[in-house]
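User: Show me a protein chain along with its predicted structure.
Assistant: Here is one chain, sequence first, then structure tokens.
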Amino acid sequence: MKYSESRTFVNRVHSIFNPLLLTELRIHMDTIWTEQQVKAKTDREQIAINNGTASDALRMDSRWYDVWCGLTPQMIEVFSPYTWVIFPPMIRIVREQNHLVPWHQDIGYMRLLGARGHNQIITCFIPIDKEPSKHTTLQFALDELPELEHVSTTDYRGVGIKDANFSKLEYYELELGDCLVFGDLAAHRTFVPPNARLERRSLEFRLTQPNMALSNKDYFDIESSTFIHTDD
């Protein structure tokens, strides 16, 4: 099924990203995390930091986009027609219980952004720990769902599905270099599998189609491996 035909799909992609590069990015993340986190300037950033998400200064490091450089046409086809990566990405280090994000659809977060939210996206979740299967991951509801009502609070983690009642749940044991690609109506949450560590480092990118891009916004085109800024 083409991604344009479904918004609840979940696709586990094996060995698409370079494990050596992901290891370098993990080391880079650990090296700069504390230094960049203290640069937070807003209450929004501080709430995000308290829940395991990077500051704006850390998220805007263009080095995270190295993972998208030099993809083969076959690799790009995995994401097509969603070939523009939204800037900046979500960078996370999960270490505590309050870092676990409740059930939600990513479209719920887009709605919170108002006019700066995209109407349709897909998400690429890339764990960068040495052995991702031994760490916190994502769990999905495999139901075919409409857009569900989300409840928002001042707590970043409190943005979630109002009535989370699903019939079939699944998580995936990932290896370094794998990713999960899923639609914006795929309900998911942060999940600690049995015998896994409550710890995770991850890069989370949201992609859109070029014809769905917003004005005055930055993107990374995975077909040309270049950054693009759209006009007003």
